Amino acid sequence: MIPTPPGTPRKKAVAAGPARRKTRTAPALPVERLDELQKIIVTCLEDDKAEAVLAIDLAGRASFADRMVIATGLADRQIAAMATHLEEKLHKAGLKRIQIEGSGGSDWVLIDAGDIVIHLFKPEARAMYGLERMWGSDLDEETAEPG
């Protein structure tokens, strides 16, 4: 008789870790809808005087989102206001499940709008994390070249 390991099925499942997800190959939203939402986001950020607003297309490169928008704010209040205004505009545009992390006065606020992820940074934090270098198209061009 083979001894069974101790623990309940639930504990065994927790120890095994999360189930693997299949990566998306097609966007959940049509490209036209993503373009419309991205335009709303960029316009809202520019209206709130965000600096260095950058939109990156992640389709086919990341499983967590199809677009990423990065912007810089100079003060905690400005970043918090940008996050609040974005939430209101996206809600009016029909997105109901918007998650905001770090809006309580940090150097980095993350807004998860489903297929679009928005990062609002203070200048020092943006330089330190370097998301443009990590996800930008320059990286693709460098790795495509031999040598």
What best-fitting shape do the alpha-carbon axes yield? globular
Q: Could you say which structural class the secondary elements and strand pairing correspond to?
A: alpha+beta
Q: Share of helix among residues? A: 40-55%
The separation of the N and C termini measures 58 Å
CATH architecture of the domain at 28-125: 2-Layer Sandwich
Number of helices: 6
> Briefly, what CATH class of the domain at 28-125?
Alpha Beta
Number of strands: 5
Evaluate the radius of gyration: 19 Å
Enumerate the strands of the largest sheet in spatial order, edge to edge or round the barrel.
1-2-5-4-3
Uncertain ranges? 22-27, 139-147
> N-to-C SSE series?
HHEEHEEEHHH
Strand content: 15-25%
Average pLDDT, to the nearest integer?
76
Biggest sheet, in brief?
5 strands, mixed
CATH third-level topology of the domain at 28-125: Beta Polymerase, domain 2
Q: Which homologous superfamily in CATH is the superfamily of the domain at 28-125?
A: Beta Polymerase, domain 2
Task: Explain what the structure shows.
The termini are far apart. The chain has a five-stranded mixed sheet. 42% of the residues lie in helices and 18% in strands. Helix 2 packs antiparallel against helix 3 (76-92). The chain has helices at 9-16, 31-47, 76-92, 123-129, 131-135, 137-144; strands at 51-57, 67-72, 99-101, 108-112, 116-121. It is built from six helices and five strands, in the order H-H-E-E-H-E-E-E-H-H-H. The longest helix has 17 residues, at 31-47. A hairpin with a 6-residue loop joins strand 3 and strand 4. It has a domain at 28-125: Beta Polymerase, domain 2 (2-Layer Sandwich). With 147 residues, it is an alpha+beta fold. Mean pLDDT is 76; it is low at 22-27 and 139-147.
